[in-house]
Amino acid sequence: MSAPDRLRIAGGTVYDPANGVDGEIRDVCIEGGRIVERLPADAPTLDAKGMVVMPGGVDIHAHFASSSCNHARRLAPDEHAADPAPAPALSEGEGPPRSGTGGTVPSTFTTGYRYAGLGYTTAFDAAVAPLTARHSHSELDDTPCVDGGIFVLMGNDEYLLRQIEAGERDRARDYAAWLLQATGAYAIKIVNPGGVEAWKTGQRNVSGLDDPIGGRSVTPRAILETLADAANALRLPHPVHIHCNNLGVAGNYATTLASMEALAGRRAHFTHIQFHSYGGGGGQPWSSAASRIIEYVNAHPEVSTDVGQVMFGPAMTITADAPVEYLLHKSSGRRWTNIDVELETGCGIVPLTYKDKAAVSALQWAIGLELFLLSTDPWRVVLSTDHPNGGSFLAYPALIELLMDRSVRDERLKQVNPKLLAGSALADGLAREYTLGEIAIITRAGPARLLGLTHKGHLGPGADADVTIYSRDPDIAKMFSTPRYVVKSGAVIVEEGQLRRAPAGRRLHVAPGYDQTVLRDLRRHFDRYSTVAFDNYPVRDVPGEPVAIA
Amino acid sequence: MSPSSTVAPVVCLGCGCGCDDLSISVSGGRIVDLAPPCPLARAWFGDGTVPAAILRASQPATLDAALADAADVLAAARGRVLVVLAPDISTQAQQAALTLADVLLAAVDTATSEPAAAGLLAAQRRGRAAATLGEIRNRADVLLFWGVDPTPRYPRYVSRYAIEPVGTHVPAGRAGRTVISVAIGADRGPAEADVTITLAPDDEVAALSVMRAAAMGNTLGELPAALAPVAEAATRLVNARYAVVVHDAEPGNEPRRDPYRAEGLIALAQALNGPTRAALSSLRAGGNRSGAEAVLTWQTGYPMAVTYRYGAPRYTPASRGIGWAVAGGAAAILVVGAAASLGSTLTDVAGRTPVVVVGPRATEAPFPARVAIDTGVAGIHEGGTAYRMDDVPLPLRPPLPGQRSAAETVSALLTAVRARGTRP
Predict the structure, then answer these.
(1) pLDDT for A223-258, tens place per residue?
(2) Which residues of chain B neighbour A540 with C-beta distances below 8 Å?
(3) I need a surface site. Which of A209, B203, B405, B414 has the fewest CB within 10 A?
């Protein structure tokens, strides 16, 4: 690495909300890939006068490194053809720069480069079938510039369902711990608890928290409780990450609230809540229920969320919530891929375009913004587009502009289909404008804290030296889409807006302890039903040491 | 490793089934037995011996000299290079080969057969409804074999995945499953079928359309006699709890395969998901072919037929790389993997275009090679990852490690090529 071991980022306006710094002119000192208190006076300097300095961005929820994403890539040759991505001109001595393609699901190297070009230095793939975790790690190997990890899907897992049904919740917890370790994962993910298993059985889906699943006595409520308790008992850095039942269904806010209430008092992260904040249904037209959801979130500090904002334009819906994708395929007539994954989960993919003249798209867009603007605690309501489901991560700057500039937001609002916006708080007028400090919270400090990444999302001594430096620009979207400098682990990887280095990212994973007596029963289960041998299942070569569990 | 040992559980890449439960007995540096018995596994593993030579212009050479010559040839041809991802290499070797292809602005071709390519293209137009093999094992209660008896070319598909095994939702195993065989010309179905239907090759797409219409609940009206049995079969599929349509995505015995077969099968499986749940199981050959398509997809966005000639990946499914090279487009060719799989395809072109081969039995390539570097075989001598026909990645546990690594050799070649300053 040709980057200096030491670097002083001098004189920038620093936004480091985790350390109470809100737009102060100060130096940020880096040594050995970490933030340090001070440096010798003769340390190399990067002049950041007049610029905005923030920790590197942290994406808490995206889909970019999974078998599902690869199926989605296959489904979009037209998008790739329209967005060829030549290899960047890296500095001398760097590994070979790689070309690729973009579109809603870019190829791996292009994904890493584009995240870096956006000032993001950490990202998690939020839905990986355990059986294909090995594939995700291979993709992450080829996704430079970002430290990353995966959340593994457990909410429809055959072995887990059997343990819950048998009342063996301790064994379920031990299994969750084993599975995290076996897959090199960072967090437990639940998608449509029980609904994917129901889809496979012909029950097609579940609709309420107390619906029996596929003729069993297990319910979505029991899955939520078991895995939330497991994550907390295992002291995982990130609590259970929940995609609720009834995604995308009119009136689903009631299910979302019921899910939150079911876990009252427990740490839990509810993801892409925009897709779960719909009113209407039962003969009533779609409407916004954002205020109902955010009111609950605001009042319950144990709950955190990311929004899953919809941005107008092309998207690729990729989810383990396979029954939803079938309905989307039938309603849109678009291409549809479905992959049922043995004993674990599912996968559905449908390309989609959110149009501002389409009433439902406009409502989704408005609901996301309402959630942001009505949130009273930005540390717990953080930014995502559920990339690429609600839109590409490349749309984050445009979203930031909508949050920071009411005039831009109001102008955009005039252009969208108003049919379903009656009663929408956004349509009624929301004056709030996010500050740079709040943007720093929802894009880096907040996600890092929710992920339990104590070395990320801040610029205090000991933090990873991941720093993004923006030139101030009245065009907010432009400012956030083209950082002047990006520093990754102490190396300047973006210089004057150009990617110059592309280091491999570090892998973020956990290895919680568990009672190993579960292994005998688990081996029996594998022998009986799995097509992969128990001894071949674990990913044994995950790079890097596991993140320490407090 | 001790003189005699047993290595287990080992993945077999003899076909796309990717059975990962093999025990391999090794003695004196050779494979002496394996279990469970499978003719393709025996053929795949053999006794595990492979040549370990290096040839340059048909003469023995050192690795450094061979790599230097290969790098000279490839770097000089930058922009007019063909890289072939042949079978029998790990995903890691494929990743390294694509890095080299990118640096060389090369066209890339794979061992994807023409019928398999047609299936990939059809899936890009329509999507697909599929499942991992274990889902078939655990859930399928009605199986339709479309012009394929898996046993000859996928010997353990029936016992491990599709017909015989006990599953979570098929506790009675074979007795809990209905098997429908559709013979199409010379492509027969499984002998143990409960229902047998015979179709002429010219009728197969019409038959698929009839079945799809039935799955969609359309009124079929009066059907030609040849198609009536498939309408009845469609009823069985619709009434299944979980229906699976199995077909061979590779070339079969019947030379007349309707070019729209793949699209018809995909459409049928998708339509069956209206009244019930269903999946299409596409049988693929082994040697980590699926892995090549997976790596290509994550690195370029496309599963096959990619060229880097224009500075970024472009998709050329109508003009694949080997055809381009045979037509005289390539100034140099790099084959990574088992050259024998290419047969005589490159014989003529190799006479006028320098070919570099890095892979198992490279020095025994069926065409003249400028440079040939033998390596081990993925899963026999070399670890890493390989993909099953259903895109499930598996860890390779080589019973005879110690041969030259294809992944490392290609990486060394990359270093040598880069040292020649190929990227401006």
Answers:
(1) 999 999 999 999 999 999 999 999 999 999 999 999
(2) 395
(3) B203
**What element of type H or E holds A494?**
strand A491-495
- Looking at CA atoms only, how far is residue A264 from chain B in angstroms? 34
Of B132, B160, B168, nearest to A341 by CB-CB distance is B132
**Boundary of a domain, candidates B249, B283, B317:** B283
Q: How far is A36 from chain B (nearest CA, A)?
A: 36
Last residue in a domain, options B251, B283, B315: B283
Judged by a CB distance cut-off of 8 A, whether residue B419 touches chain A is no
User: How does pLDDT run across B16-54, given as a tens digit for each residue?
Assistant: 999 999 999 999 999 999 999 999 999 999 999 999 999
A88–chain B nearest CA distance, Å: 10
> Any idea what the CATH number is for the domain that residue B329 is in?
3.40.50.740
Q: Are residues B300 and B339 in the same domain?
A: yes
And the tokens for B375? 């390596």
Same domain, B267 and B376: no
Average pLDDT over chain A, rounded to an integer: 97
Clarify whether residues B263 and B139 are in a common domain: yes
Nearest chain A residue to B392 by CA: give it. Answer: A132
Residue B15 lies in a domain: no
User: Model pTM?
Assistant: 0.98
Is pLDDT of B424 > 90?
no
pLDDT at A3: 42
The residue to which tokens 């996968």 are assigned: A347
A-chain residues near B279 (CB < 8 A): 338, 340
Q: Which residues of B touch A71 (CB under 8 A)?
A: 391
Q: Are residues B268 and B299 in the same domain?
A: no
Q: Which two tokens stand for residue A483?
A: 């950082």
Answer for the pair A339, B131: CB distance below 8 angstroms, yes or no.
Answer: yes
Task: Report strand pairing: A467-471 vs A485-488.
Answer: antiparallel
Contact B122/A at CB under 8 A: no
With the CA atoms of A354, A355, A360 and A363 taken in that order, what torsion angle do they form, in degrees rounded to the nearest 10? 90
Residue B414, domain extent: 48-112+287-418
The amino acid occupying position A370 is E
Decide if B186 is inside a domain.
yes
Confidence (pLDDT) at A94: 82
Buried b (16+ CB within 10 A) or exposed e, A407-441: ebbeebbeebbeebbeebbbbeebeeebbbbbbbb
- Is the CB of B204 inside 8 Å of chain A's CB atoms? no
Q: What is the CATH number of domain A125-452?
A: 3.20.20
If we measure between CA atoms, which residue out of B373, B371, B380, B372 comes closest to residue B402? B380
Domain spans in chain A, listed from the N-terminal domain onward: 125-452
Residue B37 inside a domain? The answer is: no
Compute the distance between CA of residue A250 and CA of residue A285 in angstroms, rounded to an integer: 8
Cα end-to-end span (Å), chain A: 32
Looking at the fold, whether B254 and B382 belong to one and the same domain comes out as no
- DSSP character at residue A445: I
Model pLDDT for residues A127-136, shown as the tens digit of each residue = 999 999 999 9
Rounded distance between C-alpha atoms, residue B113 and residue B130, angstroms: 20
Query: Does B278 lie in the same domain as B188?
Result: yes
How many domains are there within chain B? 2
Residue B267, both tokens: 């459409």
Pairing of strands A6-16, A21-31: antiparallel
Q: Is the residue at B307 inside a domain?
A: yes
**Mind giving me the DSSP string for B98-163?**
HHHHHHTT-EEEES--HHHHHHHHHHHHHEEEEE-HHHHHHH-SEEEEES--STTTSTTHIIIIIS
pLDDT value of position B422: 62
